[in-house]
Design goal:
The chain is an alpha+beta fold and about 100 residues long. The chain is built from three helices and two strands, in the order E-E-H-H-H. A two-stranded antiparallel sheet has the order 1-2.
Length: about 100
Amino acid sequence: MEEENVLDLSKWTITLVPRTRGRMKLQIKLGKEEALAFKNFTEMVKPPDIDEHDFLKGIFKIGIETMEMRLMEAIKSHAEENDIDLSSVGLTEDLDTSATS
């Protein structure tokens, strides 16, 4: 039976380095097993017509959008449970569309 490579995020080291002119650099260091798992994942799901940099940017963007969507759902749920009018804090009642824009 072939051993499964799993991405263990607890072993990752992520460094945020502030740069000049308001820029930043994110650096993700993976161990040997995590690097192999990520390489295998990339080889299986990356379309051949997309270069590696654009693919990584896409993964990052999808992660941010997914997190934003989950946060908006949590805010909406909390507001409904506690009878909070979100328009009073500058948010509209229709949070479903704001997470994708």
